[in-house]
Specification:
single chain; 9 helices; Arc Repressor Mutant, subunit A; elongated; three-stranded parallel β-sheet; Rossmann fold; 56% helix; mainly alpha
Length: 167
């Protein structure tokens, strides 16, 4: 996939395609090397990024690696991506996994994912149990889950429920 295309740019096309088929493997092959574009492509679901001008062997190996489930960055991109990750730039600009949730709902979801009961959540947030129940019900609806276990799984996959994943 290229970044610059006529009707739909490659990042939006990747986001759309991977959204429809999460198992799809998209490898970017483009002239654009700026940090924001690389990170946007990866966030959109690209499994790799090569610059045009990469050798035929590099492109073939990248395709094989991507098809096998790996992440690929061309030789000219590997140091740039490593530097982005080391600097924390990638984490700081990471989009919220649950953009529809309010701050209160995120706080409650964090505690739910940590295994806290509604009574414990109510006590720690200084609200009533009924308020927690209503908030939890709203979270279920926004996440499209049927119960606490499903919400915990979704939240933990997004990094909630652990001290390292506190948002």
């Amino acid at each position: 996939m290229d970044i610059q295309m006529p009707r739909l740019d490659g990042i939006e096309a990747t986001r759309f395609l991977v959204g429809r088929d999460p198992g799809l493997r998209v490898l970017m092959l483009t002239m654009n090397e700026d940090d924001d574009t690389v990170l946007s492509a990866i966030r959109a679901g690209a499994c790799g990024y090569l610059v045009k001008g990469s050798g035929a062997d590099e492109v073939q190996n990248a395709i094989r690696t991507a098809a096998a489930g790996g992440m690929v960055f061309g030789a000219s991109m590997a140091q740039q991506v490593a530097a982005l990750l080391a600097s924390g730039t990638a984490q700081r600009s990471e989009p919220d996994p649950f953009p529809d949730l309010t701050e209160r709902e995120r706080s409650v979801l964090q505690l739910v994912a940590a295994g806290r009961s509604n009574d414990e959540i109510a006590a720690s947030l200084y609200v009533s149990n009924k308020t927690v129940r209503n908030t939890v019900s709203g979270i279920y609806a926004k996440l499209g889950v049927s119960g606490r276990a499903d919400a915990i799984v979704r939240a933990r996959e997004a990094g909630y429920g652990t001290s390292a994943g506190e948002r």
